[in-house]
Design a protein that fits this description.
By secondary structure, this protein is α+β, with helices and mostly antiparallel strands. 41% of the residues lie in helices and 20% in strands. The protein has helices spanning 39-50, 54-67, 77-93, and strands at residues 26-32, 69-76, 99-104. It binds L-tyrosinamide.
């Protein structure tokens, strides 16, 4: 009895997919020290907008207080810009001069 020819005599041909994906550029969100914003307010900002727990938020706040500047998170550009706007709006609402900016990593 004659065997049926296999449909793929050499086995299936698998070609490796090489999708050309670019990693998005990342941006640091940076907090700047000033002499007037209360420490507690900065801790609340880090908890509310950067999802830090109290311990981590306090560590970052003290770093900024002592060094003058510090990174509170790293995000894609749009998210970083949104965080900056949220922090500035929240600080203004409470009449604190807290400054926040973003820059490429
Ligand atoms: N230097 C402020 C104070 O002594 C506290 C502070 C910390 C302000 C971090 C801003 O980004 C800041 N009350």
């Amino acid at each position: 009895m004659k065997e049926k020819q296999p449909q793929y005599p050499e086995g299936p041909v698998v070609q490796e997919a090489r999708p050309k994906l670019q990693r998005p550029l990342l941006y640091k969100v940076i907090l700047l020290n000033d002499d007037y914003t209360p420490m507690e307010f900065v801790v609340i900002v880090l908890e509310r907008f950067f999802y830090k727990n109290r311990e981590e938020a306090t560590r970052i706040m003290l770093h900024v207080h002592q060094k003058g500047i510090g990174v509170c998170g790293i995000y894609t550009r749009e998210i970083a810009e949104t965080k900056v706007r949220q922090v500035l709006a929240f600080a203004q609402e409470h009449q604190h001069p807290l400054q926040c900016t973003s820059e490429p990593e």
